[in-house]
Amino acid sequence: MGWKPGDRPRATDTMIRVDQAGEYGATRIYAGQLAIMGQRSPMARKISAMALQEERHRAFFDRMIAERGVRPTILQPFWDVAGFALGAVTAAIGPEAAMACTAAVETEIDQHYEDQLRELGDSDPELSHAIAEFQAEELEHRETALASGAEDAPAYPLLSAAIRLGCRIAIATAKRI
User: Fold this and answer.
1) Contact at 8 Å (CB) between 137 and 25?
2) Contact 85, 145 (CB under 8 A)
3) Neighbour-count burial of 142, counting CB atoms closer than 10 A to its CB (0-12 exposed, 13-18 middle, 19+ buried)
4) CB 79 within 8 A of CB 28
5) Among 93, 102, 118, 173, which residue has the fewest nearby CB atoms (within 10 Å)?
6) What is the pLDDT of residues 32-74, one digit of tens each?
7) What is the CA radius of gyration of the chain?
8) What is the pTM of this model?
9) Cα dihedral across residues 125, 131, 135, 137: positive or negative
10) How many Å apart are CA 152 and CA 99, to the nearest integer?
11) pLDDT at residue 11 above 80?
12) Residue 8: pLDDT above 60?
């Protein structure tokens, strides 16, 4: 009962595709940051802990894609490169910019997951439960980033706005492609 070319996607299929792409992108952002920062600094330890949660989120959506026969986004190679580059560039600017990246991404993901939960209602308890759990963890990531100096990053308002816009574009694109 998997996806076939020409099929119209179910709303939950689109959610799963977008969420898997987003969680994959998050793992790549953190990989880029850690490639620049190394593993030993206190900031890198925070990033590593958040990256482990993102890996768990991605694994859940990978499983959902396989079990439900959802067509993944064809943009996965782009998310791979773009996510890693975003992470590497923000880490190269400095630890505060890396945290600004996390705060910006998680702000958008919080709203994205909230919209999905509202749309799902009680229609898919397994998916709703996972999204609610992941949303809470994403909010923890945002709070960690803010407490770790995100707002002290150079040109924080501009950096945050650009990353948030990129997230919105990525979400909209992954819904369709």
Assistant:
1) no
2) no
3) buried
4) yes
5) 118
6) 999 998 877 888 888 988 899 999 999 999 999 999 888 888 8
7) 16
8) 0.85
9) positive
10) 9
11) no
12) no
